[in-house]
Input
Amino acid sequence: MQMKPLFIALPLLMTVLNCFAQREFRTKGDDTTYVMKRYVFMFLNEGPKRDQDSAAVTKIQAGHMEHIGNMAKTGKLAMAGPFENGGKFRGILVFDVDSIAEAIRLESTDPAIISGRLEMQAIYWWAAKGSKLP
Output
């Protein structure tokens, strides 16, 4: 009957879905086992309101940098940085949090977001746990 393939495929599908429902899973590569972890990768793009005068921009930027520093101190912000010649793409934030909603909540109090100079775009991103840039 057709039920046998369903009984085989269903447990496999449940295993795969369970991996992605969690924030971590193990995978093997050659002689190494990697623990993959889900992060929130957020683009900071040019926002719709970029007509502030230079004094306002200086104040917004100072608040933006303070906000990033405060998030890093909590351990919820794993990495951040601007793009060089990125056009409308201004920078990235990588959050070590449970959900996109949590990352958006954290970043929504950034003065650059509040002022409209920047806007957020977030997606889930998987990387080997403990990955570092050289």
